[in-house]
Amino acid sequence: MTQNRLCNRWFHWKRLGRGRPLASPHRTERLSTLRWRSVLRVAVHRIVVAVLLLQLGACATTRVEQSRQTDAVLGDGEAMVILGRATYNDRETEESFTDCLADILRQGSNPIRLVSEDQFKDDLYPWFEARTAPTNASDLSRLFAEAGVQAQIDQSSIRYLAWIEGDTVTVDKGGSMSCAVSTFGGGCFGMSYWEQDASYEASIWDLKNLSASGQISADANGTSYLAGLVLPIPILARPGNAACKGLAAQLRVFITGVGE
Amino acid sequence: MQSMEIDRFERRCLRWASRVASLSVLCVVLGSCTHSLTVSGRIPTPLIEPFPVSIGFIRPPEFSTQIHREKLPRGGGDWTIELGALQNAFFETLIDSLFEKVWPLAAPACGPSTAGLATGERCPDGFVRLTLLEYAFLPPELSGLKFFSASTKYQLELMGSDGTVLDTWVVVGYGKNEGGGFQPTDALNAASVEAIRDAGARVALEWPKQRNVQTWLNSIGVKNDPKPIM
């Protein structure tokens, strides 16, 4: 089991009004501009302090667990396919999550050869559609007895299949923020937050031995904030992204035997 | 005098600017209420063993040009969805993979004058008529869910070599896709393609297991061993 705390350490900041010439040479207007500048400077300082304080909270805590049934690892030229488990209810693994996993596993010093989900589903149509896909590794032997299935898997050199199940849900939210626009300008004031919980599990099937190889689960949660200090400032925890990184790192070790 | 002319010029500019702005807003509003989509996607070749049977494949003339038009309630907008071309190409590939010999025909008939049947060819063992009964979709604004969903309802009619109806089977395909607020047509396209694929998968795997279809296959000497689906 591994635990990790991932924080978003960056934010963009654009300086306002610096170096802009005054619109009028009149002294009164210059004074008013200077007064506005000082108000703006104070506001900017307060925003920076608020952002820095909020940055401390915008972290996602990830917990990764693994259970392994076999010691086999990916051989030379062998590939893996990552499939999001589709369901007919309102919750389903987001396509962006499986894309994130694939992007991470394809890169790095120890890249894994991946067959894309679309390509795999097309090559094996109609056996891996939402309705017809095997739900258990014990169904593999029956599926591989179908004409052409074994040959297609062999041709693509696919050794492992990782089924990804889970989603990211908002478990709590609160606060309030209001924005207004008028002829003199506009702005947002207030503060809102939402806590998200990302829970995913990868079930890894060995297509050579037609058996289940193991499971990896990744849970991450974090609270995001939206602070309205004239400008709306989002401070995002992104637990889905943290779960993706945690799961990808563990999946790489599981499949290849070595880490990044 | 000169300043008055400048004032008038500025006012005219302002008026034109406001007209252009209003027109832009109007265009954006109108554009967001009318959606047009030609369903497109990949057409997979099914990985199935064809039955050693020849059939005449019949589709109504509008099958390949089917357009679904719908005005959604509660400001959902006007939708025009062309799904004929994709569904036609998709089921052509599917039926070609399901049977060894397929003749695209206009009606369940066989004779020297039958259009689509090659001269000297023996009559097909049966006829299959495929019709789209219904296409429906639901955007997230109406369903309250975070995705677009689409469904397709097809009717598959099996006829013997003499044209008598042996079986009528209705199949519903379902698809969904997370709706990106700014790309509703992309999400609906993906959901519609999934719905057609789902119906196709059921036709390929479930339809041959229907009792009447098996009886027909047995009657023409084809041994069909129905295996359970995963």
Largest sheet of chain B: 5 strands, mixed
Element-by-element helix/strand order of chain B:
HEEEEHEEHEEHH
Number of H- or I-type helical stretches of chain B: 5
Shape of chain A: elongated
Give the overall silhouette of chain B: elongated
CATH H level of the largest domain in chain B: which superfamily?
ABC-type transport auxiliary lipoprotein component
Structural class of chain B: alpha/beta
Task: State the domain count of chain A.
Answer: 1
Describe the structure.
The complex is a heterodimer of chains A (260) and B (230). Chain A has 260 residues and is α/β, with parallel strands linked by helices. Chain A has one domain. Chain A has helices at residues 27-57, 95-106, 117-123, 140-144, 149-156, 239-256; strands at residues 2-7, 59-68, 79-84, 114-115, 158-182, 185-206, 211-235. Chain A has a 7-stranded mixed sheet with strand order 1-2-7-6-5-3-4. In chain A, helix 2 (95-106) crosses helix 6. The longest helix of chain A has 31 residues, at 27-57. Residues 8-24 of chain A have low confidence and may be disordered. By secondary structure, chain B is an alpha/beta fold. The radius of gyration of chain B is 26 Å and the shape is elongated. The mean pLDDT of chain B is 86. Chain B contains 5 helices and 8 strands, in the order H-E-E-E-E-H-E-E-H-E-E-H-H. In chain B, 36% of the residues lie in helices and 32% in strands. Chain B has 2 domains: 1-33; 39-219, Rossmann fold, CATH 3.40.50. Chains A and B meet through helix 3 of A and strand 8 and helix 4 of B.
